Please model this.
Amino acid sequence: MNRKLLPMMAGCAVLCACTPTIQTKNEVEIKPIEIKPMSISIDVNVNVKVERELNDIFGDMDKQAEQL
Amino acid sequence: MKNFAKILVAATLLLGAASVYADDDSDLKKAQQSMTERLKTVVEYKKSGKIGENNLGYIVARVKDDKDLDAVVAADNADRKQIYDLVAKKMKSSSQQVGKQRAIIIAKNAKPGDWLQADNGKWYQKDSDADPNKKDKK
Model:
């Protein structure tokens, strides 16, 4: 029994001695969230300005057309 | 002398910019006047159903082989295009986008019975059953 046990214990001792050299490593990569600026508000502003400009140009004509 | 040369160059550039702006303004006024002179004819054609307003801000002949009608349509569309181009340049938009916005205004102001083109390309008469904007459809 002791003969069998001794090599086993020696093996376990060697394994324990190697434990510090066994490393596990986990890497979690967190990518930064890219927040892109929304262009919707800019387009709406341009559309409002275009509409105003069109009303300035065609306003009188449209009123005349209503009377015809 | 060097300063004088710099001032001269700056003045020339400013005058150039001003003349471009003045040209645009005069082109706009010419187009507006031309459209105003033609307005009665265009409205009559609309009432008779011979022309319709498409969804890009231009008029379209709904009758074929009418040379007078075609001439009026071509002339009015040329004026419209010039105005849309000038507005697009000023507002840093596209001529097509300006035309589409004008089409929305035209559809809103159109009289019942006027032919209009919806966004999906289908033609309809204002306030008819086919009008997608008609309220209280029964």
Observations:
- Strands of chain B lie at 51-53, 59-61, 115-117, 123-125.
- The longest helix of chain B spans residues 2-47.
